[in-house]
Specification:
Elements lengths: L1 H24 L10 H18 L4 H37 L4 E3 L6 H12 L7 E3 L2 H46 L5 H6 L7 H24 L15 H18 L5 H21 L14 H13 L10 H9 L3 H11 L15 H15 L8 H17 L1
Antiparallel strand pairs: 1-2
Length: about 400
């Protein structure tokens, strides 16, 4: 019996320490399908998502989903601590009767109690070790508990720092592509002649964002469960919108620099595919068509009316479909697993947003103040003289 307890205790302690090392310290993808953290998220996310989806109100449902990420982190730490406590308790039990206990009869629960006081460094006076092996094992457990606490204390700032960096660009995308973000809106808002460079810079920034997302979420997959601040925003919808935009620029738009679009597409797809593999999910082979032909024709018309130079050959839709096959099955799988809807290509219900209000104010300012070269010379001199008189009176 004591041999079995020793083996079980060793397995508990080594399993937790190895899992915590892979989850917190190891800066690369953790391996193993039977890891404790992976089994924990499989066992808890499915029922949580089921009950959250029973809520009909969108904001309440999204709030319920948003609780899972931080709460799962706390519950995972509690699970690690509980298994460590039990594991060392079994190791103490395997030593025979290594303790004295002034409160109750000696046995397994006394061993577990002493294990708990050691791992949380309480130092009780009503129970303690009698043998040298038990004393050294208590020292080892106390050191393990102290080190475990220190690692956890440093773990939270790293996680929330990565989460904050992820959310900054997602929030900025609201003014550039709407909410939820769509490829049509992103291109429409960059359709002006002086906005081509801005679009290229935007795609460069999102190439870097995709690389940072890949590195942080492979090292800390539980960040995938952290939700964005607003209902219509998520890291999956933002990543899909950038992939949609890049694919459209590559396959069907003239007049824009396609090189950066290709680089951004490659990096964003890399992030999408690798995260699907890290979560051991299979891409959806029969994913619903997000852009059927009639919807593509509508997209084509909207972009043409906005001033975007679309390719006029008959193969542009097929080229776009070919690129979509490279990422949409993975996006659909992640969307269904995390219950984060994918963005449409065109906004289904266009609504007023901050960008539209600001754009209208700017249009009024440009109408009231045309460029100097478009104003006749005499009127321009009169305007300058009137401005000088006003300044002198002031």
């Amino acid at each position: 019996m004591h041999i079995v307890a020793m083996i079980a205790g060793y397995l508990c302690v080594s399993t937790v320490l190895l899992d915590a090392f892979q989850t917190i310290i190891l800066p690369r993808r953790a391996t193993g399908r039977l890891r404790l953290t992976r089994l924990f998220y499989i066992a808890t996310w499915t029922p949580w998502a089921f009950f959250a989806n029973l809520m009909h109100h969108p904001r309440k449902r999204e709030t319920a989903f948003s609780f899972y990420g931080p709460m799962s982190l706390i519950l995972l730490l509690v699970l690690w601590a509980a298994i460590l406590l039990l594991g060392f308790g079994l190791l103490f039990y395997s030593l025979g009767v290594p303790f004295y206990d002034n409160r109750q009869q000696l046995g397994f629960w006394s061993d577990v109690y002493v294990s708990g006081t050691a791992i949380f460094t309480l130092g009780p006076t009503d129970a303690g070790p009698l043998s040298g092996a038990a004393r050294w094992l208590m020292v080892i457990e106390a050191g393990t508990g102290f080190g475990f606490l220190a690692i956890v204390m440093g773990y939270f700032p790293v996680l929330y720092g990565a989460f904050s960096r992820r959310e900054v660009n997602i929030s900025m995308l609201d003014a550039r592509a709407g909410s939820p973000p769509t490829a049509a809106e992103l291109l429409r808002r960059h359709a002006k002649e002086d906005a081509a460079d801005a679009l290229s810079i935007l795609l460069t920034e999102w190439e870097r964002w995709s690389a940072e997302l890949l590195e942080s979420h492979i090292s800390f997959p539980l960040l995938c469960y952290f939700r964005s601040q607003h209902t219509n925003q998520s890291w999956i919808s933002a990543l899909t919108c950038i992939l949609d935009t890049s694919a459209l620029l590559i396959a069907g738009v003239q007049g824009h620099e396609a090189r950066q679009a290709q680089l951004t597409f490659a990096m964003a797809r890399h992030a999408m595919v690798d995260l699907t593999q890290v979560l051991t999910k299979t891409p959806m082979a029969n994913a619903p068509d997000r852009l059927p032909l009639e919807r593509y024709n509508q997209l084509y018309g909207v972009l043409c009316q906005s001033g975007v130079s679309m390719c006029r050959d008959g193969s542009s839709e097929e080229r776009l479909r070919e690129l979509r096959r490279l990422y949409e099955p993975y996006a659909e799988t992640l969307s269904r697993y995390f219950c984060m809807p994918l963005p449409p290509w065109i906004a289904d219900k266009p609504h007023k947003d901050n960008w539209l209000a600001v754009s209208k104010v700017r249009d009024k300012a440009e109408e009231a103040n045309p460029p100097a070269e478009s104003v006749p010379g005499e009127k321009r001199e009169e305007a300058i003289a009137a401005f000088r008189d006003e300044r002198q009176d002031f």
